[in-house]
Amino acid sequence: MTPGRAPSLGFMNTQHDIIVIGAGHAGCEAAFAASRMGCDVLLLTLDPGTVALMSCNPAIGGLAKGHLVREIDALGGVMAHAIDATGIQFRMLNTGKGPAVRGPRAQADKLHYNAWMREFIRRQRGITLAAGMAADLISEGGRVTGVRTGDSSRINARAVVCTTGTFLDSVMHCGLEQTSGGRAGEGSAVGLADAFGRLGIETGRLKTGTPPRLRAASIDTSRLEVQPGDDPIVPFSFMSGPIEREQIVCHLTHTTEATHEIIRANLDRSPMFTGVIEGIGPRYCPSIEDKVVRFPERDRHHIFLEPEGRSTDLVYINGVSTSLPADVQEAFLRTIPGLANVEVARPGYAVEYTYCPPMQLHASLELKSVPGLFFAGQINGTSGYEEAAAQGLLAGVNAALSLRGEEPLVLRRDEAYAGVLIDDLVTMEHREPYRMFTSRAEYRLLLRHDNADLRLTEAGRRIGLVDEDRWRRFEAHREQVDHGMALAERSRVSAVCLEAEQWEAFELPMPRSVVTAGEYLARPEVTIDQLRRAGLFGEGLPERAAEQVELHYRYSGYIEKQRLQVERMSELEALELPDVVDYSTVRGMRAEAAEKLARFRPASIGQASRIAGVTPADISVLLVHLKARRRAA
Amino acid sequence: MNSASRQYLDDTIVARSTAPGPGAIAIVRVDGPGTPDLVRRMFNPLGPLHPIDAPRQAIFGEWTEPPDAEPRDDASGTEHRIIDEGITIFFKAPHSFTGNDLAELQCHGGTAIVRALIAAAMRLGARLAEPGEFTRRAFMNNRLDLAQAEAVGDLIRAETDAAARMARSQLAGGLSRRISELRTNLIDLAAEIESRIDFPEEGLAAEDRTRLRAAFAALETGLRNLMASRKRGRLLREGARIALVGPPNVGKSSLLNALARTERAIVTPHPGTTRDTIECTIDLAGVAVTIVDTAGLRPGGDEIEQLGIERTHRAMGEADIVVEVRDATGEIEAMNFDSGSSCGPGDEFSGVAGQPSAIVFNKIDCLGNEDASDEDLARRRAAGADSARAYHVSALTGRGIEEFEAGLEALLFGATNGVTDETDQDDTSARAEPGGQIAVGARHASLLESSLASITQARGAWVAQAGDELVMIDLREALLGLDQILGLGLGEAILDRVFEKFCLGK
Q: How far apart (Å, rounded) are the C-alpha atoms in residues A259 and A329?
C-alpha cells in the first residue's frame, strides 16, 4: 500500500466549496456526490493510504445493509460499483424467505477495495484528496466557514461534512492496555471534539470492537464446513453486467466448552468486564466474552473464517470480536476446531470513540445549531460501512444542495431504508451504535432490494447524480416493468389455455374461471417463471422486469395494506414543523411533551409523533398552535 | 407508527359532544364520509316528509337499533328497537364544523341513551373519536378561525386530562396487567419470527413449529378470554336485557312500571316485538337495561297460551338476567322452568342455565304484617331456587324497589357470576365515573377485537407458510392495537427482545 501522493500540508488552494473530513465509506460517498453535483471538494484524511479501508469485516451488504447499498446505487453513489469490482465471494441471503427480506452480501478483497476507491476518488473531477488532521472548525456568526488543520493551516469552505468514524478522541483497548488511536497502527483525531464543545454540540462515547486476524497458513480447514459463493453472481449495481469471477470459499467452525472456560477464567482481564470501557457497545455485535457471559447455556457459538483477500494471507474470524489480552485470545482461539495451531497476525481490540447524538441534526444531516456543518457515519452513532455510506451520500448531496440554495433531499420512511435510517437517527434516542435491520422498516414489503432503482433513481436524476447512461437504461427498465404490468392486467388465463396434462407438467394449478395473469400470479404457488415456460405470460419480458411484475402481484394484497398505512401516515408526516416553535408557549401542551419536543426539534408532525412521551393529544394541540401561528403571521 | 397516525381522516367517527353527566338534552356527533349512510340506517323521520340528509334542517324522528348480525326472531327481524326520539341535523361537507359530512343527533340527556346511540353508530361502522379528533379534523380542513383555534387548545387539554384519567383508572387494575402479559407474549412470538428474518447467518436453531403454534393459540385464547371477561365494555356498548317471568297476575307489569317510573326511566313502555311482551329501557348504573315483561307462565293451557309461553322462553333465552316474580301472598312453591332452553347470552349472568337469577316477591303491601317480612323472606328464600337471590317489594308503594335495583346492578356487574376480581375492580371504576368510562371501554374492546383478528390472520399466513415477512405485518398490527390500549409506542420492542433472547452478532 502506498500512502497517497496527495499534497500533505500547505494547500495550493485554501478555498473550497465543501470540506469533507475523513475519507472512509461515508466521506468517499459525500465527496463523490458533492463533486458530481458540481462542487469543489477537499477530502481531508489522516492518511490517504487508508481511503475506504474496511476496518472490520471485509464484507459489504447483508440483510438491510444490502438494501442500503442498492439504494446508494440507485441514487448514483459509488459503493455498489466498488464491491462489484472487488468482491471475491457473492451470496444472496435469505433465499429461503420472501423476496422482500432477501439481501445481497459480498466478501471484498480488502486491499483491492481500498485501492479501487482511492483510484476512483483520485480520478473524480472536483475532489482534492489531502492528508491532514482537521483540528478545529472555523465559524462566523454561528455558521461554519472552514477548518483549521493540525499544522494551523486555515482552509475556507462554505460547508463542512464531518465523517470522522472512530477517530474522534479514540482509545483502543486490548486487555487492560490502552493506546490512543481509531484503528490498529493509526492515530486519533484530537481537537475537533473540543471545537464541537465550543459550538455547543453535545457529544457522547461509544464502543465497538473487532476480532483478531489469523494467518491462513496456520488454519487447518480440512475438516471444516465450506461455504461457497453463489453461481451465478447477482451484482449489487444496476449498471453491472454479469460478473464472471472465480470466488473464494469461507469456512464455518465454532467455539467449544474449552473456549468458554478460558474466556470465563480471564474476565478479570477484560476491559469491558472490569469497567475500564465505559462506552456502550452494540448488542448485535457482542464480543465473544459478552456472548459467553450472557448465554451460558450455549455450548458453542458460530464462527465464520473469511479470507481478507486474494493477495493476503490474513483471515478475518467472524464471531469472536474481543478485547481480552493477546495471550488469552491466542489460548482460546486454539481450542476452536481447525485453529489448534493458529497464528494470530493481529489480536482483536475494542475502540472507544466520541460521537454526537444525531438528534441534533436536521433530516438533511446538517446540524440544527450550526448551519453549514453536516455529520455522517459513525460520528452519528451508527455502525457499518453501508449505514455510513448512505449517510455520507446524503450529507454530500445536501451540502451541495444547500450551496445551491435548494431544498435538501430527505427520503421518506416509505421510500428507502436510507430514509428510515436517517429518520430513526434524528428522532429517536439510541443507546448503542445504530445498525440497519429490515424490521426497522414498517414498509418492508415496499422497500425491497430488487426495486431500489424504481424507488430512487428518479430522485438521483433530479439532483444530478444519475448520469445519462444510467438514466437511459433505467427508463428502458421502467418502461418494460410498466408494460409488463399492463400486460398482466390484460392477459387472461383460463382452463382452456393448456391441456390438462400440461397444467400438471408445468406444476401450475388449473384456474376454475378466467382470471387475469396478474390475479393468477397473486397465488402463492404460481411463479412468473412457470408462466413463461408454459408460454402463458411474459415470455417477451426481460428477466429483471418480469421479476418486478411477479413481486407486484405476489405481494399485492399485503403491499396494499402497507400502502394504506403509508398514505395515512404521510398525511401528518408531511406537515412541517417550523424550527422556531417555542414549545413552552404552546397552550395546552404537557410539560413533558414540550420538553421532549424542544430537545429533539422534530422537522415534521410525523417525526414529532414518533418521539416517546409525545401523545396524540399533544400532537393535536401542536397542530392547533401551528395553525394559530400561521393565521397570526 | 403510533396512535396519532391512526386517527385516519377518512374514518367515520362518533362521540358525545355535550359534557358528560345528566342534562335535558345531549348531542352525539357523527363525522366522516360514512355519515349520510349511517344516519339513513339508524334514523326514521316522523312527521312531514324530509330527505334525511337535507342539510341544515332540524328533522324530528326516532333512532333505532341497527339489526343484529343474527336476527333474534323471524317475526321481529325487521322491526328494530327504538333508542330514543329527537332531532337530527345533517351538515353537508364542507359546510360543517369539521368540514366533513357531519350529523348532530340531539337526544334526551340520559347517559344510557347517549351510549345506545354511540353503540348503534359503532355497529354501523363508525369508530369512537379520539380526544380532540373533531377539532383536529376541523383544523385539517381549515374550518377554524384564529380565536377558535386558540380556545380549542385549552379544550383539547381538558379532553386530554379526562382521557388520561380514564386510562389511569381503568388501566391501574388487572386489565392493564393482563394486556401487558399478552403484549409480552406477542413480542416474544414476533421476536422469534423476526430474528429469523434479520439474522439468517447466526446459526439459530430451526423454528420450533409446535411451540410457535402453541404460542399463537395461547395469544388468541388470551385475547378472547380478556374480551369475554370484559363484560362491562359489552354492557356499556350493547346494554343488557332483563326478563321478568312468572305466573299471570303476580304483578310483573306493575313491577316493570315501578322500575320505569323512577327518574331513570328513559323510554315509556311500548309494545314489545311480539304481542305478548312489553319492554322498557332504564339506565341502571350507566347501562341501558331493557326490561321485558313476558306473558304469564302457566302449566298446561291452550294452544294460544302455549305460543305465549314459547315467546316467554325465547325472551328468557335472550335475557342476561331472568327475574322470577311471585305473589308474596300466594303459595310458596318453586316454579318449573324446564323449558329446554338455556339462558343463551345470559348464561354469563345466571347461576344455573334455565334458572332465574333473582326471585322477587311482589305485593308485600298486601301481607298486612310488614314486620314479618324478614322472617318471611328467609323462609321463602329457602324454598326458592338455590342460587337465586330473593327480594321483597311492593310495586304499588315502591317499597323495596331500590334494594331490588341495587341487586340487579350487583347481578350485572357483580361477583356472583364467576368473573375474576380484576374485572370487578374495573367495574368499580366504571360505576364511580360512569360519564367518561364508555370511551375507554368501547375503544379498548374494539382494539382488542382488531388485535385478535390480526393475530388470527398472522397465524393463517404462518400455517400456510406464506412468508415470515407477511406474518409479521399482521403481528405488528396486533401489537399496535395492544400498544394503543396501554398508551405505548412500539419503538424497538421487538428488536430489544430479539437481542435479549438470542445470541446474535458475529
A: 10
Closest approach of A460 to chain B, Cα-based (Å)? 28
**Model pLDDT for residues B441-484, shown as the tens digit of each residue:** 555 677 788 899 999 999 998 998 888 888 988 898 888 778 76
Q: Which CATH number fits domain A575-632: 3.30.2000.30, 2.40.70.10, 3.40.50.1240, 1.10.150.570?
A: 1.10.150.570
CATH of the structural domain A213-351, one choice from 3.40.50.1010, 3.40.50.1980, 2.40.30.260, 2.40.30.10: 2.40.30.260
> Between chains, do B1 and A442 touch, taking CB under 8 Å as contact?
yes
The C-alpha cell that represents B234 in the structure block: 359489552
* B333 — pLDDT class (breaks 50, 70, 90): low
Q: How far apart are CA A324 and CA B285, in angstroms?
A: 68
pLDDT exceeds cutoff 80 at A465: yes
- Look at B129 and A478; give whichever has higher pLDDT: A478
Q: Which of A624, A626, A630 to mutate to test the interface with B (most CBs of B within 10 A)?
A: A624
| Strand order from edge to edge, sheet including A59-61 | A59-61, A103-108, A87-93
Question: Grid coordinates representing A458?
Answer: 428518479
Say if pTM beats, i.e. exceeds, 0.80.
Answer: no
Beta strands at B82-91 and A492-493: parallel, antiparallel or unpaired: unpaired
Chain A residue numbers touching B159 (CB-CB < 8 A): 617
Contacts with A425 (C-beta within 8 Å, 6 or more apart), sequence order: A358, A359, A361, A380, A381, A382, A391, A434
Identify which of B99, B128, B105, B100 has the alpha carbon closest to the alpha carbon of residue B40: B105
**B160, B469, B488: best mutation site toward chain A, by most A Cβ within 10 Å?**
B469
Residues of A in contact with B145 (CB under 8 A): 631
C-alpha to C-alpha distance for B338 and B250, rounded to whole angstroms: 20
- For residues A553 and B146, give the distance between their C-alpha atoms in angstroms, rounded to a whole number: 48
Topology (CATH level 3) of domain A481-562: Arc Repressor Mutant, subunit A (1.10.10)
Most confident segment among A4-13, B382-391, B413-422? B382-391
Cα separations in angstroms, B401 against A437, B255, B416: 65, 9, 20
**Alpha-carbon torsion angle A403, A406, A412, A416, nearest 10:** -60
Quick one: which of A84, A41, A40 has its CA closest to A60?
A84
pLDDT band with cut points at 50, 70 and 90 for residue B497: low
The answer to whether B156 and B129 have CB atoms below 8 angstroms apart is: no
What pLDDT does A631 receive? 59
Provide the residue ranges of all domains of chain A, joining segments of one domain with +: 213-351, 481-562, 575-632
- Element spanning A523, H or E: none
Q: How far does the CA of residue B166 sit from the closest CA of chain A (Å)?
A: 14
Distance of alpha carbon B322 from the chain centroid:
19
Strands (E), A163-234: 171-174, 177-180, 204-210, 213-215, 225-227
Give the closest-approach CA distance of A56 to chain B in angstroms: 12
Q: What pLDDT is recorded for position A582?
A: 84
Query: Which residues are paired to A373 by β-bridges?
Result: A160
Residue B348 in this model has a pLDDT that exceeds 70: no
Domains of chain B: 3-144 (3.30.1360.120), 174-231+433-501 (1.20.120.430)
A384: closest CA among A148, A152, A55, A144?
A55
Tell me which of A620, A621, A625 to substitute to probe the interface with B (most B C-beta atoms closer than 10 Å): A620
The Cα A558–Cα A562 span in angstroms is 6
Burial label for B266, CB within 10 Å (0-12, 13-18, 19+), is buried
Residues of B whose CB is below 8 A from A296: none
